[in-house]
Amino acid sequence: MRVGLRLVREGRAAGFVSAGKHWRHDGHREDGSRHTSRSRSPAIAAVFPTQAGTVSVMVDVGANVDAKPHNLEQFAIMGDIYSRQIFGTKKPRVGLLSVGEEESKGNELTREAFPLLKALPINFIGNVEGRDLYNGKSDVIVCDGFVGNVALKVSEGLVSTVRAMMKESLQETITRQVGYLLSREAFNDFKRRLDYTEYGGAPLLGLKA
What we know:
Elements: H1 2-9, H2 26-33, E1 43-49, E2 55-59, H3 69-87, E3 93-97, H4 108-118, E4 123-128, E5 140-142, H5 145-170, H6 174-182, H7 184-194, E6 204-205
Parallel strand pairs: 2-5, 3-4, 3-5
Antiparallel strand pairs: 1-2, 1-6
């Protein structure tokens, strides 16, 4: 990984692809951080499907577990740009992940970050809650890497559990098995829509290369 990152830094490679979430390793992340333009805190962006048929981008999901308010401000800007450039969202709705919709809700980090995001030239819609991750309320969800990674892992585990429970339930009786066979295409489509592996890797935003 160090060799690949060095090749990008030296301009001998246009990009670097990893086969896993290796950015959690401090040494590798430190190497990647040297490419940043405004800070040494790049963020990992993850894509989630929504009920509205769109996708929601969460920034950050693991690179910065001890983020500061100004980091969340940067994540909002990067998420807004990423949503517009990659998914064609004309005016991304940017939400700050918290424990309540009111501006006063949340911990010290979210309360301090709120006015910073509100002052940005983006479509900031205020606080959003965990339940808003999949309902399509926002196009970009901003949070620190600790919270984002927990949300990501809970989502991954929930999808796997729902799939396993549905499969087990549909195979309990002959009648259900027949119904499962008849609806297999719809069931497979359901799995594809919720399977996080269908949405590709997670880019590290905030790098010069």
